[in-house]
Amino acid sequence: MTAPDRPRISLLGTSALLFEAPGAFDLPHQRRIWALAATASKWPGIREAIPGITNMMLTFETPPREVDTLIAALNDGWDAAEGLAIGGREIRLPVTYGGAIGSQLQSVAEHCGLSIDDVVAIHAAPLYTVFALGSHPGYCYLGGMDPRITMPRRQTPLQRSAGGSVSIGGSQTGVSASPGPSGWHAIGHTTWTFFDPSWPTPAALAPGDTIRFEIEQVIR
Amino acid sequence: MIEILSVTGPASVQDLGRLDQYRFGVGTSGAMDDVALRAGNILLGNDENAAGLEIPMMPFKLRFDRDMAFALTGADVDAEIAGRVIPPWWRSHAGAGDILTIKAMARGARSYLAFSGGIDVPMVLGSRSTQFRGEFGGWHGRPLQPGDVLPCTASTATIGELGVEPAEVTLARPNADPDETLVRVVVAGEYDGFDAATQELFWSSSWKITPQSNRYGYRLQGPAVKPSMPIEKRSHGIVPGVIQIPPNGQPIIQMRDAQTSGGYPKIAAVIRADLWRVGQARLGRMLRFEQTAYADALAAEAEMSAYLDRLRANVGLVEETRTCR
Amino acid sequence: MPIELTDIARLAQILERSGVDTIEIEVSGQSLKLVVNTGPRMAASPTLAAPATDHSVIAKADVAGHFLAAHPWRDKPFVARGQRIEAGAIVGLVKIGVLYAPIVAPAAGTVDAVIAETGTMVGYGTPIVRIRPLS
Question: Is the Cβ pair A134, B25 closer than 8 Å?
């Protein structure tokens, strides 16, 4: 077993590898992940270095013969990584909480022992940072959610969840960019465009950008 | 050009995939049986990444509007061109107006049609594959419908009929039960979070492929495989082949249209050399996992590459001797 | 185009690289047969010479390899005795390495006999299927 203060590194079959940083789900750790990803993406044989939430996936051009060499490089890279502070843009995003799309607002309130208004107020309070993109085209994982509105992911993922859903999964929150399957709980929705393949950079947001949710409406 | 006359289920335009756009949340898409698509393109002398059609359900029918060579690979299907039977893994030639009909699928789950020169849809983010979730790539980012007319860059040069040995024959697994798909996997990050008895259950069980299985993922049914303690991960990247265990203990194999990240615990991942076997495993059939060391997984990949190298060399030889004659 | 010595050398090289045993080439009267591996010898061409009055046509192999009466995925052979076939129909395969080359009917008719046995080595011109043409 890996020591608790050391990174965990594991294989995702023969086409990728996962690096998980030790420590908290917070911005300083995420900045080190951004720094490590910037470095690792230049290594030979690496197709992409993709930041996750205080973790990073490396996809391989060709699978490395010697995984140990790569693991050592990642450990050294993590120790050497200085936080990369990305000065991003700030986006204001109007959200309709509750309603047909945000149908889980009530269950999140019940699970957390809070009123609907509390959940909405707590969710809309922070300035969230885009930690990573993933899941589906243009989707942003946000850091900064108040742990009081944490709710475990679904027992069985939904086959289809609406585009623009504002959801909670564990201690994370995010907005879906298009309809699709999801294991998260939708508490609201927005109508913003997060992704267009014809844009020079197809995703509207990038790691380091910030989002402030504005309460447009609460449907009970 | 080719015109789709009749289609059942979500047939789509696919190449080998959009492999380097994960950082924007864009998954690979691409042929579920990439070996079959490559073989079809090799038969035609195409770039192996040329776009073809992936057809998961029959019947299927299309019309050629000009002379064109094509290849049919993947699942074992009952197919005809202008009344002539097309054997499995075969290249043939169509005349203008000829109709290709695929009636039934006797084995496997997906049939592939490659066309001389490939299907000429625009490259979007480095690939012609259909991205269903993002609704781009392929043919307008959607499944094919009757009446769709797909552009092809085909040369009209006639090439003779020729077949190749299906990958399933050359790369047959020893001792595989014919009613089960045997899939090699390497263990993944949370394997140690399952106790020894549960790990054993994962290996020894025969998993049923449920009707909720598709290009996004294969949802399996069997005994509940649950970690000793609930595991909730921070979201991280995942790739096709990763086997997640959601809280209900029923494994999900991520496939070509899977989300690019997730947080359910991962017990194992299908090796790249066997992912096409999953892509050809039919709904309702059984699947079994075989634990493989990383080094053996690389050896299996080398074996798969050697098969493709032989196809390339052998098909190339036929063209060379034709030129000599 | 006469076959040059350099062509032969090049072909032998290609054969070796690709794992194909044998190849036969015919160019304006000249014929060339290359055998790389000394594997199983070619089966002598069956001498099922038809009577002189017979108007049968013969579907012949045009490349050397192993004859397959059925595709490995299929139980049913391509053709059976008594079957009506069209000109150009596939009557069997020659397996050369991982390639399957078709053997086609030169004329429409009824299958009289499948002469070659599945799995045997056949060469250029080996008779495979005898067909009674439509008259």
Answer: yes
Q: Residue A179 phi/psi, 5° resolution?
A: -70, 150
Strands A210-219 and A90-98, by their bridges, are parallel
How far, rounded to the nearest angstrom, does the alpha carbon of residue C67 sit from its chain's CA centroid?
7
Q: Are residues B104 and B231 in the same domain?
A: no
Instruction: Give A 60-79 residues with CB within 8 A of chain B.
Output: 63, 65, 67
Instruction: Tell me: pLDDT of C45 over 80.
Output: no
Query: How would residue A5 be classed by pLDDT, with cut points 50, 70 and 90?
Result: confident
Which of helix, strand or coil describes residue A163? Answer: coil
DSSP B191: G
Shared domain check, B109 and B201: no
Residue C54 CA from chain centroid, whole number:
22
Domain that residue A22 falls in:
8-80
How far is A149 from A101, CA to CA, in rounded Å?
Answer: 18
Q: Rg (Cα) of chain C, in Å, rounded?
A: 16
Residue type, position B7, single letter: V
User: pLDDT-based confidence at C99, cuts 50/70/90?
Assistant: very high
Same domain, A162 and A66: no
Number of folded domains that form chain B? 2
pLDDT at C2: 46
The CATH number assigned to the domain with range C57-133 reads 2.40.50.100
Q: How confident is the model at residue B156 (pLDDT cuts 50, 70, 90)?
A: low
The answer to whether position A179 is within a domain reads yes
Tell whether A2 is covered by a domain. no
| Mean pLDDT within B316-322 | 74
Task: Give the helix ranges, DSSP H, for chain B.
Answer: 34-44, 167-170, 196-204, 275-279, 294-324
Asked if residue B152 and residue B184 are part of one domain, the reply reads: no
Chain C contacts of B316, Cβ < 8 Å?
14, 18
Which structural domain range is residue B155 located in? 2-167
Alpha carbon of residue B238 to chain centroid: 18
Q: Which of A1, A8, A9, A15 is the best residue to mutate to test the B interface, defined by the most B CB atoms within 10 Å of its own CB? A: A15
Q: Say if CB A138 and CB B24 are below 8 A apart.
A: yes
C-alpha dihedral (B24, B29, B34, B40), degrees to nearest 10 = -120
Q: Judge if A111 and A211 occupy the same domain.
A: yes
Cα A62 to the center of its chain, rounded Å: 27
Domain spans in chain C, listed from the N-terminal domain onward = 5-35, 57-133
> pTM for this structure?
0.89
- Closest CB to A25 among B24, B234, B260: B234
Omega before residue C77 within 30° of 0, cis: no
